[in-house]
Structures are given as structure tokens and as C-alpha cells.
Amino acid sequence: MRKQEDFSEWYNEIVELANLTDKRYPIKGMNVWTPYGWKIMRFIDTYIREECDATGHDEVCFPLLIPETEFKKEKDHIKGFDAEVYWVTHAGLNELDVRLLLRPTSETAMYPIFALWVRSHTDLPLKTYQLVNTFRYETKQTRAFIRVREIHFFESHTCHVDEEDAQRQVEEDFVILENIMKHLCLPYFLLRRTEWDKFPGAYYTVGVDTLLPDGRSLQLGSIHHYRENFSRPFNITYEDEKGEHKFAHQTTFGMSERLVGAVVAVHGDDKGLVLPPDISPFQVVIIPILAKGNVEKVAEECQKLRQELTAAGLRVKLDDSDERPGSKFHNWEIRGVPLRLEMGMRDIEGGKVAYARRDTGAKGSLDRSNIVPQVREKLDQISADMRAKALAASNDAIQDLDSLDKVPEKVVRFGWCGEEECGRKFEERTGLKMLGSPYNKEEYHGRCIVCGKPVEKPTYAARSM
Ligand code: ZN
Q1: How far is residue 213 CA from its own chain's centroid?
Q2: What is the pTM of this model?
Q3: In a domain, 110, yes or no
Q4: Do 63 and 162 lie in a common domain?
Q5: pLDDT at 344
Q6: 134: number of CA atoms within 13 Å, CB side?
Q7: Which range of residues forms the domain containing residue 421?
């Protein structure tokens, strides 16, 4: 299990060993969420719900099936998804007059209904979100959480009176994203996608990318401003204060179970998962160190410790199975539990609890009295250190590029004039995918790597996952 040597192989093995998913379901790319993996996903969903609810979004749940007639209404949209959708052609023994598709995303499911919900400017902004499964027929090799055909998905959909208000929503989405990523300890980039790579039907798309240890980029989500591109075909109009009818401006924000994949990929090491405390099913594992003559006393003290920590709201596992401590250490390291506590007779007599951090391997001891704040402090420190370490690795993974002749196996930063011709040429020559330019201003003075024109903002490109 060498992460540095063969990242791809390492990833598959870790996912398997930590039992995050079961890939034996008889449809390729449709995996079973195991209890451990699903708990992690649920914590992430909980943060998503918290953030959306706090910003005035309402959770909804739309049907999975979309009639072909609705799906076809926005032309770019259908072109973008045509090759990826699953079709339902029969109901019972009858062939359907209008085929139905499994949502690849929910614009065309929601917007006919939004057209009924939105009547007046007083109905706006309409801010909704849902957490559902979506379906995309991936033809590339599938990979747990990263490229699957049934996808656990978050999508927010909003309607606004005008372009500016929709723009404010985009900015709010960035704040929501930042708050969620803090829990996951993941660094990311906000890159405005090229015209030929934006979401089908969008006015513009901002991709949320994180960098993987092998120099590739992984798109974790995206935020789109639609202007009136969907409200026109779906007739989402409202009456303004003067009684005039206007089209709504819309936005969406989507993320998926790739967040779990990114947590595995970015934080994991040769021993297994390393989970951020905020999303770890267990934040603390207690291992009793038993010896002849003290079994009962140690077991009892470990129970007390568990109760005290649990009562304080911490998620704690007491591993009182019959295995040897060494193999318990190993098992919980694979599963990424952030903090291990050990207690034997000597610790009990000395009023101490031994600890080991999963992220750094650092060991030491805590005072048994007043244990709760000390454990909390350790967990906070682990979160902060994981964030800092991942950010440093992400910054290290980027290399400035000034010639097409020496392209490194990394994420590259370079000058691009913005012309599609130069962009396409760059992608052809390097085999890299253009990710776009930073949404937020980044100091840069350079020249287009293809035509030499001076440019004032950088562009990023990478091999994509
Ligand atoms: Zn150029």
C-alpha cells in the first residue's frame, strides 16, 4: 500500500480495506454504501443541510424520473447529457409514448414546477436544495466515490429577480462551500471554466477542484449562473412591482459523493484512512490494555472513560473485542479514527490516559481527570493540522509552465489569452485539461503560452481524474 508509488492502486485498496463501500453489487459503477461509508457521507450531508438551512434554502425532493419532453427543452443541456442518461422505455408491459429518464441532475425535473411556484416578485428569491441519487452512464473506468454511475448528489437550485441577485447567490454559495470544506479539511480551487467546458446551458460555471497526490485534479462540485437560459424555455416568469412579466435568473450549486473520495485521497496514508474529526464515525477509539489479574478493573475504567466522553457529545468506540491490542491499533488505523486512547493498569494508577494521533502518529499522555477538554483540544489540533498539511501539499503540487515543450506531471499554471483557438491548441499539445482561471483575482503577469499575447491572470490545467 504505497500511496506515493501507485496512487490509483493505493486508493482502491484503502477503500476496500476500510470497508467504505461494497463493489460487488451486480451493476458496475453502482456500489453499496456500507454502514461505515454511509456514516461519513451522512456527516457531510448534515453539514450541507446546516449551511443551506442557515442561508434560507428549503429542502425539497423531486421525482427521479423526468419525461423526455421536459428534458429536451434546453438544447445545450440535452446535447451535454445525451450520451450519459439511462432511459425508462416501458411501464409494466406497455411501451411508453414518452420515454422517461433517470435524472442526471434535476434542472429539467424542477423547472416545470418552478414555473408554477414562481408567480410574483414576492415569491423570489426561491432557494431550494435536495440530496438525492442521480444517474450517469459513465463509460470511463469506474472508481468508488470518484466515478460511479449512481451518484449520491447535492444540488441547490435558486430563482432570482435579476442577474445581480443571482450573482449574490453565487457569492453566498462560495461561503457555504468554504464552511463545508473546513469540516473536511480539504483545500480547493475556484476556477471559472472555459466556454467549451461550462455546464450545458450555463451562462458561466465555476468548478470546485481539489488536487490529488498524483498530480491530477478532481472536480468536487460546481456552481453555475444560468441567467435566463433555463427560465426562458421553462417559462419561469414573475410579475414585478410595476406589473411587468419578467424571466427569473437562476443558479445552481452541486456536489457529490466525490467529497468522500477526496477525503480518502488527500488525507489517507500508507496505513489507511485518515479521517477529519468532524466527519469520522468515531472520533476516539479506546483500547484497553489488559494483563492477567487486572482485566476487570481495566475494563471497568475503560467503560467509565467511554461514558464520560460520550456524555460530552463525542463519538467514541470502545474496542473490547478479544483481539490483541496491536491488531486493534492496526484495524482502527485503517479506518482512520483520529484519536486513539489506551488505558492499562499503569495508566490507571498514574491517573493518565495514553493517546496516539492518527494523522501524525504523535503519542503522549493526558490526565485522566478533566479528560473531556483535553480530548477536544487534541481533535481541534488534528483538524487544524490536517487542513494545513493538505493546503501545503496542494500548493506544492502546482508548477508554473512557460513552454509547451516541458510539461511536468503536475498541475500547471500558465498564461492564456482567452482565445478558444489557443486553448484548444494547448490541450492538444499537452494532453492536459484546462480547468480555467481563478474566480478570485490572483496576481499574475505573463504571456499566452501559445500566441505570446500579454495576460494578467493565470490559467490552470491538469490531467483530470
Ligand atoms: Zn493566445
Answers
A1: 16
A2: 0.96
A3: yes
A4: yes
A5: 97
A6: 25
A7: 398-462
pLDDT digits (tens, 9 = 90+) for 396-431: 989 999 988 888 888 999 999 999 999 999 999 999
Dihedral, CA atoms, 77, 83, 86, 92, nearest 10 degrees? 100
**What distance in angstroms lies between residue 204's CA and the mean position of ligand 1's atoms?**
21
For residue 312, the domain's CATH number is 3.40.50.800
User: Do the domain assignments include residue 386?
Assistant: no
CA distance 274 to 386: 9
**Which residues line ion ligand 1, judged by CB < 5 Å?**
417, 419, 422, 448, 450-451
**Are 432 and 305 in a shared domain?**
no
Residue 456 alpha carbon to ligand 1 centre in Å: 13
Please report the pLDDT score of residue 1 as a whole number. 67
Largest pairwise CA distance in the chain: 86
Rounded Cα–Cα distance for residues 330 and 324 (Å): 10
Query: Measured between alpha carbons, how far is 202 from 225 in angstroms, rounded to an integer?
Result: 6
The average confidence (pLDDT) of the chain is 96
DSSP 243: S
Q: Are both 174 and 131 inside the same structural domain?
A: yes
> What spacing in Å lies between the alpha carbon of 216 and ligand 1's midpoint?
24
The label of the residue with cell 489488559 reads: 290
Find the 200 Cα to ligand 1 centroid distance in Å.
25
One domain for residues 242 and 294: no
pLDDT at residue 77 greater than cutoff 80: no
Residue 228 makes CB contacts below 8 A (sequence gap 6+) with 247, 248, 249, 250
Alpha helices by DSSP H, 216-257? 231-234
**Same domain assignment for residues 98 and 144:** yes
CA 154 to CA 375: how far, in whole Å? 32
Q: Give residue 399 CA to ligand 1 midpoint distance, Å.
A: 20
Residue 274 is assigned to a structural domain of this protein: no
Distance 442 CA to ligand 1 centre (A): 19
Last residue of a domain, one of 344, 378, 412: 378
When divided into structural domains, the chain yields a total of 3
363 and 415 assigned to the same domain: no
Q: How far is the CA of 347 from the centre of ligand 1 (A)?
A: 67
**Domain for residue 389, yes or no?**
no
Please tell me whether residues 366 and 412 are part of one structural domain. no
What average pLDDT score do residues 155-174 get? 98
